[in-house]
Amino acid sequence: MDPTLGNMASCRLALLLLLLGGMSALSSPPAGLLGRVFQYIDLHQDEFVQTLREWVAIESDSIQPVPRLREELFTMMSLAAEVLRRLGASVDVVDSGSQKLPDGQTLPIPPVILAELGNDPKKATVCFYGHLDVQPARQEDGWLTDPYTLTEVDGKLYGRGATDNKGPVLAWINAVSTFRALEEDLPVNLKFIMEGMEEAGSLALEELVRREKNQFFSSVDYIVISDNLWISQRKPALIYGMRGNSYFTVEVKCRDQDFHSGTFGGILNEPMADLVALLGGLVDASGHILVPGIYDHVAPLTEEEKKMYEAVDLDLEEYRNGSQVKRFLFDTKEEILMHLWRYPSLSIHGIEGAFDEPGAKTVIPGRVTGKFSIRLVPHMNTSVVEKQVERHLQYIFSKRNSSNQMSVSMALGLLPWTANITDNQYLAAKKAIKTVFGTEPDMIQDGSTIPIARIFQDIIQKSVLMLPLGAVDDGEHAQNEKINRWNYIEGSKLFAAFFLEVAQLHNNDRNSPA
Length: 514
Description:
Number of strands: 20
Distance between the termini: 58 Å
Largest sheet: 6 strands, mixed
Strand order of the largest sheet: 1-4-8-5-9-19
Strand content: 15-25%
Radius of gyration: 25 Å
């Protein structure tokens, strides 16, 4: 094809995708450097999609601890390091040691990438965090296409990791590469920290951050994470808070062996019956947590906070239909958002040791373990929650007068995270969103937990920004995960505009009188 015709086709495709995205576009493209940056990204979007296709093809699953997948993870980290080197970054691939599994097997942990691009003392330094590992995915689990073959259907790019988190990582790299291709100086100094074990708990990452606090991170002004989703299919968002998480296991044991229900049924306290009673006593049908005292330390609702919920653009009917849920527990937008973001929730995740295969096996499990978690909000404390849960489960168990043994353990305790939305980088992100999308962002929280945000904030003590690119229906962790081509390409523009806005605010601060 004639290159001129190819460029015209790409431009038409970009316009079509923008219209299909359902959002208002800018009346005219920006002038000057930003206009040239946007034009370059539009004309090269097929190349950017192809790179995402190559990254999705790597089965970088960190959840299943098998040697083949660890090799894939190492391949993924090596590829990302090489991409950064080609951009001109100095790259340090930091060994993360090994992971000892419960069966005694040892597997290497993929390295963490620390990269740096620019060290001008007059410029702001922005550090981008991303992860390159993914959740497991098999086509037979309900995927309509091969999860590791990026497939485009109606402007949607389907593939494991497309939105979580390979797409956003590449959008940041696309923005950097565009400045390089146009032979323009980067407006800010950039640092990158990329890991390959986020989905498995970010093994060894906190230790590395502590170790590098006064070295790699010493010059960092701002930290950006793009590992979340909007609350809408159309309107961009900024995230200023996330819930924490206390993950519990409760075990009920009679003996290590299972029983035959014809031989023992009716003459003993069955562990499964005890466990079902314990789990059933944690939360009621309205979603209210039944653990006494659990709400005592929840931060009070302020009038200012109420107004933020009212301002969020959320179509409840669309949200419900997109979630494939018949009805929610609450009827108003404000109630839904508050129970997603600012109130704790308790979820029961599963039972280990129970028979869960097809067929009819008449077994009484001798030992079963229930798994549940509580999403924490300010100002809840993990150690207090742990004691409250233990006390409550012990009370329920004592009422059953069972001869079995019960034990409770908190496997994970992660505190919630809240940002200061008056920080320069939040102001810069708002301006960049307005430039790219022509609208103010929704200011939202996220009901899930990204531990690294709190780690960065507590250890490095620098501002952390959550700047998501994906739409609410992207399906991270689920079958048929996707990122819209439009979100991916406009997200690349957003990051480029963000660089310029941060630089402008930084220069204003430097030049303002003390």
